[in-house]
Design a protein that fits this description.
The protein is an all-alpha fold. The chain contains 3 helices and no strands.
Length: about 90
């Protein structure tokens, strides 16, 4: 599998957080649009590869943060998201 945009270099040293997010977004859109899907793991692999290539402590991207966000999204849709306690309101 060839990932679109994987060899694109950012201009001038370290990109801003916003430009990095836009870059990741464009890679995800381009690659997922043309993916040959056998099952959900193919989609997960594509997303994981693009995000994995973008992990950078300097930019505040780390695997745990991404996985926490992914798990939170699932929990919101599958009923496992914890209900707020009365004192959290």
């Amino acid at each position: 599998m060839v990932f679109v945009g994987a060899n694109i270099k950012h201009k001038k040293n370290m990109p801003t957080l916003q430009s990095k997010i836009i870059f990741i977004n464009k890679q995800l859109i381009a690659n997922l649009k043309n993916i040959k899907v056998g099952d959900l793991s193919d989609i997960g692999n594509t997303i994981g590869t693009i995000i994995g290539n973008s992990l950078s402590s300097e930019m505040g991207f780390d695997k745990k943060s991404f996985m926490d966000g992914l798990e939170h999204g699932f929990s919101l849709t599958d009923g496992t998201h914890p209900k707020p306690k009365d004192d959290d309101k």
